[in-house]
Amino acid sequence: MKIETDTTMHADRTWEKIIMKYNRPDLRKSLWQILNTFVPYVGIWIVMYFSLQYSYWITLLLSLPAAGLLIRLFIIFHDCGHGSFFRSKKANDITGILMGILTFTPYSPWHFNHRVHHATAGNLDKRGVGDVWTLTVEEYLACSKRDRFIYRMYRHPLVMLTIGSLYMVMIVNRFSRKKMNRSSRMSVYVTNIGLLVVAVLLSLWIGVKAYLLIQIPIVLIAHSAGIWLFYVQHQFDDVNWDRSQQWDYKNAAIQGSSFLKLPAILQWFTGNIGFHHVHHLSPKIPNYNLARCHYENELFREVKPITLLSSFRTLHLRLWDESARQMVGFRKLTFLRR
Length: 338
What we know:
By secondary structure, the chain is mainly α. It has one domain (8-336). The chain has 17 helices and 5 strands. It has helices at residues 8-11, 14-20, 27-51, 56-82, 89-102, 107-120, 137-142, 145-155, 157-172, 182-206, 208-234, 249-256, 264-269, 276-281, 290-295, 308-313, 330-336; strands at residues 135-136, 259-261, 305-307, 319-321, 326-328. It has a 3-stranded mixed sheet with strand order 1-4-5. A two-stranded parallel ribbon has the order 2-3. Helix 5 (89-102) crosses helix 10 (182-206) and helix 10 crosses helix 11. The longest helix is centred in the first third of the chain and has 27 residues, at 56-82.
């Protein structure tokens, strides 16, 4: 369902006043969230170590809730970069850097790209930074066979959710690039050094093999789930994209970001990030205020939710059809070309 763009609420910018009261981080809630996420993560990690003595299948089973907690730690990392987790910039940065080490993600470069993503989400003329590679139907048809193959592989769920997570963890997050500024390069180095220190200490305690058998599945599962979440947040049936001339921040936030309505336990593990339309409207809202902001305001009543089941159906969407103003799959493309 598309929300009309010419309503009085849109025109008078009442939404800016609505979200202001949710923008304030609560120190007690923030500290409690760190405590109720980090402590269970460490606890499950230790239990996984002892489970190695019995069956690795038990270890792998335990890696699922551990990965869920790692995603929740990543949401804290994410909020810190937006300056929404604490009122103090220093507290946000220190916490974010530490969470970045736990989640294998360098703080500064990830958030630089993420800020660009927030400023350009839903803008067809400003794709390419911090987003999922998306071509229009016309752009795809103009590609060579080689480029079409690469695009198809990139967008294939099995590639995106397996090789994609490996690529993020082992390549993108581990190496600096020429275009990075000094702060981003240093962030990559600090994160890598932190990871090395933690890995060495834990390996000296339990052995290299045990460390790898525990940490690798947790990280890969968490990052695969994270890629899926990020995909669903901006690739769904009712998503809206516009060219720069028509692009509007508020409409891009509410119509270009999904409301992923998850079961309560998954909503907890994912730190309410399913309320992504609210988050894009105001990145300053802490994750623990997102659901309250959504349910307390008429502004979001018309936003159509995506359920867990329907979210998997979005994986067939591949291209933006500008004429039909909707995402389509390759099968639809074949039909259109007849």
